[in-house]
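REQUEST ID: PR-0412
SUBMITTED BY: lab tech R.K.
PRIORITY: routine
TASK: structure prediction, single protein chain
INPUT:
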Amino acid sequence: MPEDENTKTEQPYNETLSSINSGGENRTSSFFSFLFDLAKTFVVVMLIAFAIRYFVIQPFVVDGDSMMPTFVNNEYLIAEKISYDFTQPSRGDIVIFRYPKNPSIIYIKRIIGLPGETVTIKDGKVYIADSLDATPLQVTESYIDSSIKTNLFDATAPDQQLKLTLKDNEFFALGDNRDHSSDSREWGILPRANIIGRVWLTVTPIDHFKLWSHQNY
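STATUS: complete
OUTPUT:
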């Protein structure tokens, strides 16, 4: 009986059905292709993570008590590094920076004085004047107890008074724990180039979890 043309199985010349490739080579090729794609994805993810880690955000762990009660020892923080590429640090911002006397050491303090301002510490209080002939105004610091005094560490300072005029790209920084903080009262101005970033997020302890915004006062 003639075989219907639509049911015929076409075979390669001089080759039986049993010798046709069963697909093993294709599966092997697909497996290596999958591994290659996986490796490419991993490299891309690592490059993105590297860029975020070194150019956008960076984790830090608080070492010491100079920022109490705002931050405690071993508190885990995330600093963002990109906003200061477009804006200047604001008064009240809590910044991570390289210690001016030894850049290998990382400090955390609060910005108090801005470029062009004159900072005066007198009678345990901090005053700011935005020009040399302006009347200094006392800085309102709601983040520390009103009974805390900002004293000088230098006992030889006349009348226990400090007065410092900041130039371009110079800042005055203080720790919130005024009696136990190495800051601008001791080592002077904080150069803009030393600032790494602004504290953006408190991660742990979990009961301290907080998103920090730019300050403006």
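NOTES: The chain has two domains: 23-61, 62-211.
REVIEWED BY: pending
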